[in-house]
């Protein structure tokens, strides 16, 4: 057999296998190292700190778990959250993340390694990313081979789409969930391939872990039944599928119901009904198979027809009936917004107000996946080529995840693994073809061709499908040729090989550079601490958030209730340790709308709300001085919208725009805008800062009137260095029972208008008669 | 200076020289023209007799200052310089309100003229007639000027002693606004009115023809009004300084001396002063307060309330409140129940109630505000939580179908396994036999 490059021929197969195995282990370790190392930018550039918003709650909960033990955590009622409603944390949280950290913490202490719980929390996500790389390797290995697995592991290790949710300090559920997702899928594929109840059970156990860790478990709950359903429809029902699915579903569902937050949802909500339905269908199909082996073909067809029709009608009727009765909860708003992207904006502004729930912008696909995004379709098409059961899984996964990633930014995370897998399959096929040293022999038959992507197993099947465009694509993408064609193609010489391989290496290198750049610049900011560049290029840290939170911690009584928009609830609870009205666990729309109403109403309307909720301090984020665009004035319309959803008579969004329909804060601003508590708190005394000059809001680029707003029911308590956080204290009722506006006017020395006694016409005549 | 006073007074009271003193301190600043000091000697001597330390200061004097470093220097201030248009710069309407927020009690008198005090009066929801219109009355027939009026004390007064002689009054009346913190002490007689005594009666006739519109007349007007501020301090407004003067007190059958005594006692927090000594809560069959309660717990709430006895200068347990309520509040009161005195233990008020079936951060709230009395307010925050994971009933008779289902499935599985295994061995035996 001719060879383009001479290969050593005196190596025994055992030596080759051993060396390959050793190299694989080394490669996987290096990939793990790279995955962990690239996530440490945040720690090196800033410090070992918990990032963003949700992680602060997870961190706080983990501290409770670590200090009080699991049972106390389970029964933890947090009276400081959602004041005065409180939050039953144990029953409203996915405890997997905290439990994982807790186990690591106790494990290390048992080994006499006293590690601070904060460092465990900060470094948990990088640690699990290494495990994700391994799980992806195992999964891809089932799809193609080890080399594709290694490529997939390398891709997932450093791809920005996954790093964005798993840098050090990003202590969120997703940090461990992606590993669990991939490993559950791997176990499912393995169980399906082997028909193994053991692997089905392992899949169920990891499914349970996933349920305990992340609300995104519903993705698995629907992916696996969908896969099973598609296999049945393709006529690929086997007892292996029956065993794998039944063992996974029964054990997994029973286990998932042990998580307090999930409870009876697996048997009572629409999201979980697909899994139950497919489970039932599998039983029917298995029973049908049994019947078929016992009765004649004609009878069987009659039975099958009647059974299928009646089962279908009964099933749908039962589902509709139970949904109508309320036994099965209808789809949630978040679910609807997956199909209709405008739904949330219309009906549930609270969901639409979260930036993670916005549709994905196209550039972010390239930003997050770089060259993988154009290898991805190639990989999916290659899956069609062999179309084993597991390839069907990847295809379904690819289609579903692509759609969801387009609808919601945060679901980019579930797309990333399948992109890595598919791209690795495609890329490794490319390398397999061009790194193979064998040249085709002119006289050899096509089936002897040694191209390693062996696809010629089912030539007939492929031929049958040649009519479709897809089949053409498949054929074009396949490096081997059709069985009947007398001519064959192949790779000759070293120059083509060299060019292609060099090109591939260049693509990989650019990918690495891009990933490093994206991680370092885009995804490693803790958002609690902001960084800017000085004129000489050195880094300048803006630490206003922590300054304000520590001021609260040091200067206010421990029971002082702080009101802020819900974004900052977890941070205030975590860093300032004060009760908050609303936080990032947005479970009570009315309570959030109450805060929105207080923020968007005038002082007279807001004050009774503040007093009723025992609010002592109000905290607002103001970026106008520094040009920090994520401030409360920019979020203000969401507060208005959410409040309008509950009090449509009192709060109306159009009132906050100018008659021309502009959103302005300068002298042209509408009256509702100027009188709102949020506007007043943001710009109170702002113009004084400019010493008589023109005050300019650098976020909105608008000039503010010289006469700033006045506050009667609030006192300015603290403003941070760069004015990003402003804290106001709520005044108590006036000593003399006056309203605070006139009390304030009196304190400033203004004369009160003479009042007259109420008319006593009636009283006078009554008095005269007596 | 204040501490020195209290220190001295402490020893004085120990020695038994004093027979009455205020619950909030004994230092009194009297702002008065020095020349007029002798006109009120009966009133001042009465106060001194009770143990008050009087300090006098002219309205324009700088010393002694009323507050040092925002700490009030006196427990009570009497301002009788009612005609003075200018006070020293530390006595302004604003500073007086500030002093009240620090707990200082005020006793002030108004005059016909427009003074800083009359602008302060409107902050207390008092509505004054136009300047220069004192209260006049033609009844009862008497030799005294029309503006000098004997007023019968009300029969059921909160503040004045019962069966008092008529109180002689000369000064301006005031109408009362809708402020619930006002405590009327003495109303004007129903046949009196505010009028400019110098002008002719035409204005009055005009006003009367309009059905009383714009006419300052009748018993709705008040001549002495108390004010219970939210912080606990008290203020009393008198229509004129003469009510406290020796001249009126010496009149035959005049109740002015007793009136001055009673008004000062209420204003300086000697009478009708209550306080909550302590509140506590626990489970019905417990004794110590819990950090959090479970829903539907039976909770006992107890409050200790004392009453200041000026005769002994001591706080004594007080069981006389019959209309007090306890609220168990989360945003709105979920439970509102009467908090009644416990028979047999003076000063103790207690109630047992079931916590609502709703978790959240609740507050025990006592908010008792009655005219003439010190306000009682107490708020204790306590979370009410759902039962612990092991706090639910373990074995439910209603769940028998599920128990039966679980047991039958287990038994069925066991039987099936046994039958399957046994059947298999038999088959294999058969198979072996056939072979």
TrEMBL record, chain A:
Domain Oligosaccharyl transferase STT3 N-terminal: 23-422
STT3/PglB/AglB core domain location: 561-611
Membrane-spanning parts: 21-44, 88-108, 120-140, 146-163, 175-191, 241-261, 273-291, 303-324, 365-384, 391-409, 415-435, 498-520
EC number: 2.4.99.18
Skewed-composition ranges (Low complexity): 444-454
BP-aspect Gene Ontology terms: post-translational protein modification; protein N-linked glycosylation via asparagine
UniProt keyword list: Endoplasmic reticulum, Glycoprotein, Glycosyltransferase, Magnesium, Manganese, Membrane, Metal-binding, Transferase, Transmembrane, Transmembrane helix
Region: Disordered, residue numbers: 442-464, 746-770
InterPro entries linked: Oligo_trans_STT3, STT3-PglB_core, STT3_N
Pfam families per record: STT3 (PF02516), STT3-PglB_core (PF21436)
First-level EC class: transferase
Cofactor: Mn(2+); Mg(2+)
Keyword Cytoplasm set for record: no
Summary of the function given for this chain in its UniProt record: Catalytic subunit of the oligosaccharyl transferase (OST) complex that catalyzes the initial transfer of a defined glycan (Glc(3)Man(9)GlcNAc(2) in eukaryotes) from the lipid carrier dolichol-pyrophosphate to an asparagine residue within an Asn-X-Ser/Thr consensus motif in nascent polypeptide chains, the first step in protein N-glycosylation. N-glycosylation occurs cotranslationally and the complex associates with the Sec61 complex at the channel-forming translocon complex that mediates protein translocation across the endoplasmic reticulum (ER).
PANTHER family the UniProt entry points to: DOLICHYL-DIPHOSPHOOLIGOSACCHARIDE--PROTEIN GLYCOSYLTRANSFERASE SUBUNIT, DOLICHYL-DIPHOSPHOOLIGOSACCHARIDE--PROTEIN GLYCOSYLTRANSFERASE SUBUNIT STT3B
Protein name as catalogued: Dolichyl-diphosphooligosaccharide--protein glycosyltransferase subunit STT3
Lineage, broadest ranks: Eukaryota, Fungi, Dikarya, Basidiomycota, Agaricomycotina
UniProtKB/TrEMBL annotation, chain B:
Residue ranges annotated for the OST48 middle domain, each copy included: 281-422
Transmembrane segments: 400-423
A molecular function GO annotation: transferase activity
One GO-annotated biological process of the protein: protein N-linked glycosylation via asparagine
Leader sequence residues: 1-20
Highest rank taxon of the organism: Eukaryota
Pfam families the record matches: OST48_MD, OST48_N
Alphabetic keyword roster: Endoplasmic reticulum, Membrane, Signal, Transferase, Transmembrane, Transmembrane helix
Pathway: Protein modification; protein glycosylation
Domain OST48 N-terminal: 28-267
UniProt topology in membrane: Single-pass type I membrane protein
GO cellular component assignments: oligosaccharyltransferase complex
Subcellular location(s) per record: Endoplasmic reticulum membrane; Membrane
Presence of the UniProt keyword Glycosyltransferase in the record: no
Keyword set includes DNA-binding: no
Family: Belongs to the DDOST 48 kDa subunit family.
Function: Subunit of the oligosaccharyl transferase (OST) complex that catalyzes the initial transfer of a defined glycan (Glc(3)Man(9)GlcNAc(2) in eukaryotes) from the lipid carrier dolichol-pyrophosphate to an asparagine residue within an Asn-X-Ser/Thr consensus motif in nascent polypeptide chains, the first step in protein N-glycosylation. N-glycosylation occurs cotranslationally and the complex associates with the Sec61 complex at the channel-forming translocon complex that mediates protein translocation across the endoplasmic reticulum (ER).
Subunit comment: Component of the oligosaccharyltransferase (OST) complex.
Protein name: Dolichyl-diphosphooligosaccharide--protein glycosyltransferase subunit WBP1
Organism per entry: Roridomyces roridus
């Amino acid at each position: 057999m001719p060879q383009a490059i001479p290969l050593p021929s005196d190596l025994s197969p055992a030596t080759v296998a051993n060396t390959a195995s050793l190299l694989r282990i080394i490669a996987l370790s290096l990939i793990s190292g790279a995955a962990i190392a690239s996530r440490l930018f945040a720690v090196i550039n800033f410090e070992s700190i918990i990032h963003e918003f949700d992680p602060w709650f997870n961190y706080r909960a983990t501290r409770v778990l670590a200090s009080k033990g699991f049972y106390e955590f389970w029964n933890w009622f947090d009276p400081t959250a959602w004041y005065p409603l409180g939050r039953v944390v144990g029953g409203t949280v996915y405890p997997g993340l905290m439990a994982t950290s807790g186990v690591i913490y106790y494990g290390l202490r048992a080994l006499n390694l006293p590690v601070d719980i904060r460092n465990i929390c900060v470094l948990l996500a990088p640690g699990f990313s290494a495990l994700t790389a391994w799980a992806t390797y195992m999964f891809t290995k089932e799809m193609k081979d080890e080399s594709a697995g290694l490529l997939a592991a390398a891709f997932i290790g450093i791809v920005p789409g996954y790093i964005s949710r798993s840098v050090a300090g990003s202590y969120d559920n997703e940090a461990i969930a992606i590993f669990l997702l991939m490993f559950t899928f791997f176990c499912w594929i393995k169980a399906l391939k082997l028909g193994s109840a053991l692997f089905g059970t392992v899949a169920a156990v990891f499914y349970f872990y996933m349920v305990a860790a992340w609300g995104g478990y519903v993705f698995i709950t629907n992916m696996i039944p969908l896969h099973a359903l598609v296999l049945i429809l393709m006529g690929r029902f086997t007892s292996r599928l029956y065993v794998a699915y039944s063992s996974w579903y029964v054990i997994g569902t029973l286990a998932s119901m042990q998580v307090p937050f999930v409870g009876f949802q697996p048997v009572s909500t629409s999201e979980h009904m697909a899994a139950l339905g497919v489970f039932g269908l599998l039983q029917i199909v298995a029973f049908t198979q049994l019947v078929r082996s016992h009765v004649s073909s004609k009878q069987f067809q009659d039975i099958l027809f009647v059974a299928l029709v009646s089962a279908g009608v009964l099933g749908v009727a039962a589902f509709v009936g139970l949904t109508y009765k309320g036994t099965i909860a209808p789809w949630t708003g978040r679910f609807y917004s997956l199909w209709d992207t405008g739904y949330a904006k219309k009906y549930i502004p609270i969901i639409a107000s979260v930036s993670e729930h916005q549709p994905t912008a196209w550039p972010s696909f390239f930003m997050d996946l770089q060259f993988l995004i154009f290898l991805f379709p190639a990989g999916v098409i290659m899956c069609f080529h062999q179309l084993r059961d597991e390839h069907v899984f990847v295809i379904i996964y690819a289609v579903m995840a692509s759609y969801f990633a387009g609808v919601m930014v945060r679901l980019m995370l579930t797309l990333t693994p399948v992109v890595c897998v598919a791209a690795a399959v495609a890329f490794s096929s490319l390398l397999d073809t061009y790194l193979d040293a064998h040249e085709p022999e002119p006289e050899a038959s096509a089936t002897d061709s040694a191209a390693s992507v062996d696809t010629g197993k089912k030539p007939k099947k492929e031929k049958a499908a040649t009519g479709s465009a897809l089949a053409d694509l498949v054929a074009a993408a396949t490096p081997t040729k059709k069985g009947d064609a007398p001519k064959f193609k192949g790779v000759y010489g070293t120059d083509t090989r060299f060019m292609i391989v060099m090109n591939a290496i260049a693509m990989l290198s650019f990918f690495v550079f891009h990933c490093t750049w994206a991680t370092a610049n885009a995804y490693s900011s803790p958002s609690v601490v902001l960084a800017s560049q000085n004129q000489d290029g050195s880094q300048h840290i803006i630490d206003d958030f922590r300054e304000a939170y520590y001021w609260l911690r040091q200067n206010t009584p421990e029971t002082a209730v702080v009101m802020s928009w819900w974004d900052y609830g977890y941070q205030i609870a975590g860093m300032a340790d004060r009760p908050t009205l609303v936080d990032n666990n947005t479970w009570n729309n009315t309570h959030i709308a109450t805060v929105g109403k207080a923020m968007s109403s005038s002082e007279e309307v807001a004050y009774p709300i503040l007093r009723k909720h025992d609010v002592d301090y109000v905290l607002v984020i103001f970026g106008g001085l520094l040009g920090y665009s994520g401030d409360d004035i920019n979020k203000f319309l969401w507060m208005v919208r959410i409040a309008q959803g509950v009090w449509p008579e009192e709060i109306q969004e159009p009132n906050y725009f100018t008659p021309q329909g502009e959103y302005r804060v300068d002298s042209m601003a509408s009256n509702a805008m100027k009188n709102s508590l949020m506007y007043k708190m943001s710009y109170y005394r702002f113009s004084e800062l400019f010493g008589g000059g023109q005050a300019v809001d650098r976020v909105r680029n608008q000039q503010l009137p010289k006469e700033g707003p006045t506050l009667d029911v609030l006192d300015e308590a603290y403003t941070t260095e760069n004015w990003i956080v402003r804290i106001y204290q709520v005044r108590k009722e006036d000593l003399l029972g006056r309203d605070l506006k006139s009390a304030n006017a009196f304190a400033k020395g203004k004369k009160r208008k003479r009042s007259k006694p109420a008319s006593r016409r009636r009283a006078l005549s009554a008095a005269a008669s007596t | 200076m204040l501490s020195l006073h209290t220190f001295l007074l402490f020893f004085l009271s120990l020695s038994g020289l004093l027979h009455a003193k205020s619950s909030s301190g004994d230092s009194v600043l009297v702002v008065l023209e020095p020349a007029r000091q002798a006109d009120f000697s009966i009133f001042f001597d009465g106060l001194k007799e009770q143990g008050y330390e009087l300090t006098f200061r002219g309205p324009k004097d700088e010393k002694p200052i009323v507050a040092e470093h925002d700490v009030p220097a006196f427990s009570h201030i009497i301002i009788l310089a009612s005609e003075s248009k200018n006070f020293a710069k530390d006595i302004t309407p604003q500073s007086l309100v500030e002093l009240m927020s620090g707990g200082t009690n005020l006793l002030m008198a108004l005059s016909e003229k427009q003074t800083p005090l009359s602008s302060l009066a409107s902050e207390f929801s008092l509505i004054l007639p136009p300047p220069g219109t004192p209260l006049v009355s033609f009844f009862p027939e008497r030799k005294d000027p029309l503006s000098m009026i004997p007023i019968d004390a009300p029969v059921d007064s909160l503040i004045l002693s019962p069966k008092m002689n008529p109180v002689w009054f000369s000064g301006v009346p005031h109408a009362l606004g809708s402020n619930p913190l006002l405590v009327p002490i003495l109303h004007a007689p129903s046949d009196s009115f505010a009028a400019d005594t110098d002008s002719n009666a035409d204005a009055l006739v005009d006003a009367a023809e309009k059905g009383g519109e714009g006419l300052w007349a009748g018993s709705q007007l008040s001549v002495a009004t108390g004010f219970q501020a939210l912080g606990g301090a008290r203020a009393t407004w008198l229509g004129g300084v003469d009510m406290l003067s020796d001249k009126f007190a010496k009149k035959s059958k005049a109740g002015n001396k007793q009136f001055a005594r009673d008004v000062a006692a209420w204003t300086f927090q000697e009478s009708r002063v209550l306080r909550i000594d302590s509140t506590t809560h626990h489970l019905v069959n417990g004794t110590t307060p819990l950090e959090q309660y479970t829903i539907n717990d039976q909770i006992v709430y107890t409050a200790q309330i004392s009453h200041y006895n000026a005769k002994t200068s001591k706080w004594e347990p007080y069981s006389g409140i019959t209309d007090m309520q306890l609220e168990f509040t989360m945003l709105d009161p979920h439970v509102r129940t009467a908090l009644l005195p416990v028979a047999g233990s003076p000063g103790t008020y207690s109630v047992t109630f079931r916590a609502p079936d709703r978790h959240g951060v609740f507050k025990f709230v006592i908010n008792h505000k009655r005219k003439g009395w010190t306000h009682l307010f107490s708020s204790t925050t306590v979370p009410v939580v759902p039962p612990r994971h092991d706090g639910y009933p373990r074995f439910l008779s209603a769940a028998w179908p599920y128990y039966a289902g679980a047991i039958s499935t287990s038994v069925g599985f066991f039987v099936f396994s046994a039958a399957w295994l046994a059947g298999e061995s038999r088959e294999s035996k058969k198979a072996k036999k056939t072979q």
